[in-house]
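Write out a sequence, fold above all:
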Amino acid sequence: MTEARAEPDAAWAVVLAGGVGSRFWPLSTPTRPKQLLPLVDDRPLLVATLQRMSGLVPPERTLVLTNASLVAPISAALPELARENIVPEPRPAGTAAALAFAAAEIERRSGSETVMICVHADWAIADEPEFRATLARAAAIARDQHGLVTVGIVPTRPDPGFGYIQPGDAIAGTPARRVRRFIEKPTRERAVELCATACLWNSGIFVWRVGDFLDAIRAHTPEVAPALVEIDGRPDSLDRFFSAVKAVSVDVGVLERSDSVFVVPGDFGWDDVGTWASLHRVRTHDRDGNVVSGAAFVSESSNNVIHAEGNAVVLFGVSDLVVVTRDGLTFVTTRERSVDLKNLIESLPAEMQARS
C-alpha cells in the first residue's frame, strides 16, 4: 500500500523544540537539552522528528522553533535545515504566540492557503508510516473544512499525565469530529472514566491552513492578535512581535475559544518522552523488563531504567528504579517519583545545580 503524502507545495511543518527538559536531569542541561539527546534510539529526538516528517514535508519547508541559545547546536545537528528556518524565540511566550509567528512567516513565504503541520520534538512514534498518513488525512480535512484540526491519540491506558479531548458530532465523509471540549490533566480515577467514554489524548499535533489560524488568532486571542502587525519580514520583526505579546497557550488562547475545531483520531504508537519513566514505555526491555543504556550489569532486578554514561552500574535485587550516572554524579529515584525532578533541582546545593 502506498503511503499517503502531502504535496510539498501544499504544506509546511513546524517543530516546537524549546525548553531544556529538566525531568531528564542530570543528563539534560541548558547546553545539551532533551531534544538533542538520543533518548528513544540512537538518534537525537529532534533529528528523529525531522527524519520522520521528511516523508511528508521536506526540510526546506520546515520551521524549528526553539530557544535563542540552541540555534548553533540545532544547526550542527540538522545541517540540511537552512538557518533562516530556525526561529529563536526571544522569550517564552506560550504556544499561541510561537505558532502565530510561524503561521505569519509561512504565509509571508508561501501564502495564506498553505497548510501548516505542528509537531513537538520530544515524542516517540512506533508506526511512522501511519503517523504520516494520519497527518495527511488531517491536512486534507483542514483544507476542505477551513477549520483548526488536532490529532487526538487513541489511549492505551488511563494516564493522568495527559490532557484529553472529548469528541462531538461527526464531520460527514471524514474521520474527523468536532471537538466538544478539552479536558485538563485529570485525576487517575477521572482518566479511567474518560477512556471508557472514547475520549482521546490531547497530543499537541495541530494542522490548519495558516490563513485560517491567523483569522482565529485575530478573532479569539487578544493576547497575541495586536502584535501580528509587527511580523513584516524586517530583521527585527521577531523581537518586536515577542515583545508585544502576552503569554498564553494555543489550547487556551485559540482552540478552547473557537467553534471550528476538529479532532482526527490517531493510533500510531505515540508517546510523550517527558520523564525517565517514559523510557520504560518506549525503549526495548530485557527479559526482566529493564531498560539499559550504557555499561550495566543487572541481576535479579526488574522494570528498572538505567542510563550509565562514564561509569558502570550494577543493580542487584531491586525493581522499578531509575539510575543515572554522568560526569561523576549518580542519581537514583523510583520510576514513580521521576516526574518530580523540577522540584528536586530547585532544592539542590549550588554546586550540583551547576551541573543542570
The chain has two domains: 8-272, 276-353.
